[in-house]
Amino acid sequence: MSALLQRLNRPIVAILAVAALAGIARGWALANPPDLVFDEVYYAKAGCLFVGGSDQTCFIDEDAEHYWVEHKWDVGSWVHPPLGKWMTGMGIKAFGMDAFGWRFPSAVAGTLIAVMVAVIAQLLFGRPLWTFVAGGLIALDGLNVVMSRVAMLDIHLAFWAVLGFLCLVLDRRWIDRRTERALADEPVQTVTVVGEDGATVLVEGRAGAAGRGRTRVPSPLWRPWRFASGAAMGAACAVKWSGLTALAAAVLVTVVWETTRRHVPGVSRWRAFWRTVGMELLGLILAFLVVPAIVYMATWLPWFNHFGWSLSAWWENQKEMWRYHANLTEFAYDSKTDSFTPTHGSYSKAWSWILMKRPVNFFVENTTGHVRQILTIGNLALFWGTVFAIPYAVWSWARTRDWRAGFVVMPFLVMWLPWFVVSRPQFFFYVLPMTPFMALAAVYTLQALSDARLVLHDEAGDVAIDPETGLPAISTRHPFRPVVMGYLAIFVVLFVWFWPLLVGERLTTSFRALHIWMRSWN
Known about the structure:
Elements: H1 2-8, H2 11-27, H3 40-50, H4 63-72, H5 83-95, H6 99-125, H7 128-139, H8 142-147, H9 154-184, E1 188-194, E2 200-206, H10 207-210, H11 224-237, H12 243-262, H13 269-298, H14 301-307, H15 311-327, E3 331-334, E4 339-342, E5 361-367, E6 370-375, H16 380-400, H17 403-416, H18 435-451, H19 481-503, E7 506-508, H20 509-513
Helix pairs in contact: 2-6, 2-7, 3-5, 5-6, 6-7, 6-9, 6-18, 7-18, 9-11, 9-12, 11-12, 11-13, 12-13, 12-17, 16-17, 16-18, 17-18, 18-19
């Protein structure tokens, strides 16, 4: 039995298990309901048009839609870039213009997101158990499941963003290995260094690390994983412009990491930062400006082919997209009531997303005594747990300088906080690209709890010595592991309980009421 457990305790087993969980949850009765739900009415039709479908095949039957087809080669979704619609179109091309065809690409993207989160967790924590837990939190999160089962853009945005951050972690590993080899080749010497407080100290180390405040860490222009990250972030922007927040997060993470890599004994953090700017600026511009711009423009090539190769016409189209989003309002004047009323009943503010105050109804079908519903509700254990997990990661990052905590915190905050100042109406499911970092923050916290042991300290604050054994007074028990197991058990129970609302199963009205824990969920 122990031999079997050892064989299963491998990263590849954990990753494959996550893939199976995510694939089953997303593929189960994928074509249910068979009709277009919520904004599928835009994106499925646009994807169908892109891959050559006729108006009849693509269900283009309204005058407004015919107008947009003629002037934008799209329907109402012309206000977003084309890549996500092309991805939807590939499913339609393969399987036909039906529910399975237009949802299949979303299911694939959602499954791969869970797998990539598992891979990131393996790179961060190095243990198959936490690899499986991190991937499982995404595989069985309700919001991720719902968004992977509908033909909308947000799941494709999240896919490209997570891929970009995965490439960023791989870039860190790639350059760290080269830095270690470079510093190992430097001769050891003892030098006098003047610290930031003016004190003179002797520092023994490699010349590149301590020599006169200079660092000789490698700074190659060609870093393949960094360029791959930039390409993925460009693709995210080509799905939705909000992908720019993921791109900004990638730049911030890179600058912080590169500054830390140069912050060695004898080199102040400020000097390390400016050395980073001097050595890395060109590479950052190429990877996170030029490459994303090329990828973004490449996704518009079919548009140019359709309307003609005019940059001015393309630029005017971009400005029209911008004006649309800039002029969106949460309230509009209603002449019947002589008042301003919400333009949509499911808008929510960014501050409320983690609390999950207003999820969005994608589909509701009422019959006598029964209800079928698809509700974009995340797993409460993951979302409400974030209220504790993210602050803990911030505290740990500040206290221990653990780069893993920083990696969890920075993308989450950079992708979330800009929505606080955006005037455009917002929906709860905009939080989707942040959920991978909520899962990683949860795992970071759970691992700390699982590994924690009781330690006795003496009056001086040092670890006490056990008088019987003469060893440090550190318990061999892990008192918080029951808490970790309890959290994971609650997570699974909540997934099972809310499953009917994720896939539109028929519920009695009274049983459905037991799933609606807040009035705003109706």
